[in-house]
Task: structure prediction
Amino acid sequence: MEFVDTLNRTRSAQLFEEAKKYFPGGVNSPVRAFKSVSGPPLFIKEGQGCRITDEDDNTYIDFCCSWGPLILGHNNGRIRELVLETVAKGTSFGTPNKLGNQLGKLIIENNRYIDKIRFVSSGTEAVMSAIRLARGITGKSKVIKFDGCYHGHVDSLLVKAGSGLATFGVSTSAGIPESFAKETIVLPLDDRQLLDQTLQEHSNDIACIIVEPVPANNGLLLQSRSFLECLRLKCYKYGVLLIFDEVISGFRVGFEGAAGRYNIQPDIITYGKIIGGGMPVGAYGGSHEVMSHIAPDGPVYQAGTLSANPVAMAAGYAALQQLLEPGFYAELEGKTERFANNIRQYADEKGYELSVQQIASIFWIAFSRDKIVRSDQIDAKSMDKFKVLHHELLQRGVYLGPSGYEVGFVSAAHTEGDLEEAAGKMKEALDIVFK
Ligand SMILES: *Cc1c(COP(=O)(O)O)cnc(C)c1O
Result:
């Protein structure tokens, strides 16, 4: 298939060529390279509300939103103001600071599932620390993760299932010792029998189960509450800690994340993305007892030079305050639902092989009509269709994350009018995809 640009990407293309001289693949995070969609990646110079503008002055309605953090859209006024006020006094002191307290208080007082929190600087760091904490508490070393869940680039979690069911993992990246990968057991989502069997056989070695309660890094693999509840009960039964990786779902599917939405109490929760209001912040939290194991209170070491620096705390604080306003989540979810329904309805009328998976303000277009709950149900060939969709949407001024496995995010800055406009463009693009 040949892709013709009516879009002028000259400056982006030039900058990308230059970037290749400095960065592996021209990027600082792999999926940004546009490998699975058409043309060079766009160099974005500005974002306002739900729109981003590239170096060639093309403007797009943005559904990537920096991969999730920007639930308030780009350049939110209150975040900008507090960041500017804070940065004027210096960026980092490596000491405790009041803004850290303010953000910590805001989170703890509005989240029934954690008593204490520790700030770090990325989602990966949060997950890595949470796993260490689980190992430190239980004195056990193995981790169960699920195929189709992403937990950052933590060594022992960049693994996939080995051959056969419930075997120890094999790494999906060079540079990960086999001995690390062996510490991870990879199971399919939504398979209670295999879960139980694995726990029966290995629970003496298993420190924790880590799961994205709303798996949103490999399509949107919405799990039943009963499966998540089953994880909770099995963990209690077998003396294993349950980690909810809420780096995407935290503050996204509700202020209390998926724990609150499903009302399930994990032992440790990890956060990232939205928590930093667009600055690099991650965090992990748990009960007083669980968190008492962290240094300097306890023996599990974890530290960070720029952790909880005032500028990052300011951005997070200004962002999360706005999420607590009455009706914030209901309105955002309502808008997203109407947007998804609009596209669903059109696809139904036209008989297109497509479904729109959606929860809260997350959506994912699947080129299948089946309910997809496990990653092996995603047809890799359907990604050819995504490539066309992505291309056609770019031409029309709509920006989706550059991979068919990535979900879309609606922000509070997307108005009904913006979403109506985007849906119209989506329909035009789908007509070309299914031509
Ligand atoms: C994004 C993400 C991570 C990694 O966060 P980074 O800030 O990119 O390191 C971990 N877990 C989940 C569920 C994520 O979505």
User: Anything to note?
Assistant: DSSP finds 13 helices and 16 strands in the chain. The chain has two domains: 10-75+327-433, 77-323. The CA atoms of residues 259 and 265 lie 6 Å apart.
